Amino acid sequence: MALRGRPAWWPSCSPEQEDPMADRLNDVNLEGIMAVDKLVRETPALGKCQFKAKSSWQRGTKSQVSINAWTAGGNSMSPAPRRFTVMVDEPPELGGVDGAPNPVEVLLSALAGCVTAGIATNAQMFGVPIDAIDIDLEADVDARGLLGHDKSVRNGVTDIRYTVTIQSSAPEDKIRKVKETIDRKSPVRDTLAGPVNIVSKLVYKPR
Asked: What is the pLDDT of residues 57-91, one digit of tens each?
């Protein structure tokens, strides 16, 4: 049975509960990560996490995605104040009004966020100071697939490229190790690179 809020046995990772004067390299809460790592090593079932989102149509091609709940080992890990909203739209050429990033751009944002977080975290674990991380991303989509012009053309993204620029006082070999480590371990990159089981169902509501 799911619990309300973080279970008592789950380590506190809230920055507000830490010493505000603590000197953290790259400002990553590594203590929280290590505490969770220890807990999952002791109880592997807690490593099975589930993240959730709920989308609501806003007319046209626009949608509002609400994000709050996530679980670990079947236990709710979402305190009540955790509420995030992401707006998604399409440009006029794709039927929208360009009121928000389109789905592919949001996809690139997720990859950029995951890689950035991983670089900062790995750098802190390796004792490498970071001054700046900038990532330029590109995704290729052939519209002929979506428009039904050529059934041999894939509907979605065919190629993704990203360039990571890192400013640091550390030697280049250490920076390269930090970047290449997250290239191998990024959950979002792994999701995009490999097959994922997707299940879709319909709930019909008659008027």
From this structure: 999 999 999 998 899 998 888 777 789 999 999 99
Hey, what CATH class is 101-195 in?
A: alpha beta
Q: What residue segments make up the domains of the chain, in order of their start?
A: 1-100, 101-195
- Report the distance separating Cα 169 and Cα 176, nearest Å: 13
Q: Residue 114: what residue type?
A: C
Distance CA 126, CA 120 (A): 10
pTM for the model: 0.88
What is the residue-averaged pLDDT of the chain? 91
Interhelix angle 103-125/172-185, rounded to 10 degrees, is 130
Domain 1-100 falls in which CATH fold? GMP Synthetase; Chain A, domain 3 (3.30.300)
- How far is Cα 96 from Cα 92, in angstroms, rounded to an integer? 5
Token representation of residue 54: 């709920």
Residue given tokens 């091609």 in the structure block: 61
